[in-house]
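ok so i was messing around last nite and threw this chain in just to see what happens. nothing serious, just curious
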Amino acid sequence: MSNDLFAEFAATMHLMRRAMGQNDPRRAVHQGQGRLLAVIAEMQPTNQKDLVDRLDIRPSSLSELMGKLEQKGLIARKQDENDKRNYIVTLTDEGTRMAGQVAEQSKEFEEKLFGALTQEERVQLKGLLEKLNVAWQSLAEEQGACRHAHANPPFGMGGHGPHVPESRMRMRGFPCTKESGGW
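result:
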């Protein structure tokens, strides 16, 4: 059973990666840029530090994404008057429009991915995935692969673990935090 389960899971992940990699001609921004737009829309006005924490990405990766969005006229950055090292980030009018378009496309894509499941099955799958995320995060922590660690990542996770934001990890009771030195 376990080999069959792993094989089925691996096949599912492979197909999902392929589906997510398809270029939708309607997509005006790259997937990562769309995710950033959605988060800024939810949190604005916000700052870069909060975005790094929320998205669980490196500051350099965020700067690169924000630079691309700024070039497209989708976000505006203004130096924080209280902390000159930080910038306040907001969406422009075009960015707000694009964030709405991205949200609609995300809903459509989710429906395509999970349309074969009933609502009850979707709820059940979500619960199972949350349970696996908690277990796999524990495994990553045991192996010293907490967020942003790069040595010996488990299951080919690229050294970043399953990308669960620190706030959700604290909520779930995980000790691996910036304060404990594990992040």
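not much to say yet. Strands lie at 46-47, 75-79, 87-91.
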